[in-house]
Amino acid sequence: MAGRGYTIFDTAIGRYGIAWGEAGVAGVQLPEIREIETRKRLFQLYPDAREMRAPEEIEIAIEGIAAILRGGNADLTGVALDISGIPAFNQRVYQAVRGIPRGETRTYDEVARGLRASGAVYSVAQALGRNPFMIIVPCHRVLEAGHYADRISPNGGSVSKRRLLSIEGAQPTASTTLFDVLLPVARPRPQA
User: Fold this and answer.
1) pLDDT higher than 90, residue 115
2) Is-catalytic flag, 71?
């Protein structure tokens, strides 16, 4: 691979973007509501990248991402990532999360304990919130305590964790609503 490049490609849930450099995939951008916004986001993140045809190694990643988003199975653990400039702790988190099998989830706390950093739950959440390798590093498989799937990464575009998990067949706990919180403390209504 010579220089930094990017391309936009079709998936079952919209047009994704992927950027790469000499060392591998530099980032994946999930679809925004409009393709122009996906392109704009890629340009903001990788201003030195040129739009070009993806080399063979990147095509393999693209095909795997597309397969996963069709509900299929693909192993992306062999896809090379350009981790230059990524803090060492975040690299450890990304490596651990890449090992979570399709259809399974973990909590931030479980990932932290797996890294032997049990007090680092917030740091794990921060690292995953900055994940530039969406789908390849499946941060959507890491949930808040209680297995809630509400947070969306900034690189997630208009796609939610819940939607990605449903494509994979994982069942996160439903979100707690205001109704759920207030119901146990509300006084019963008088019967008429």
Assistant:
1) yes
2) no
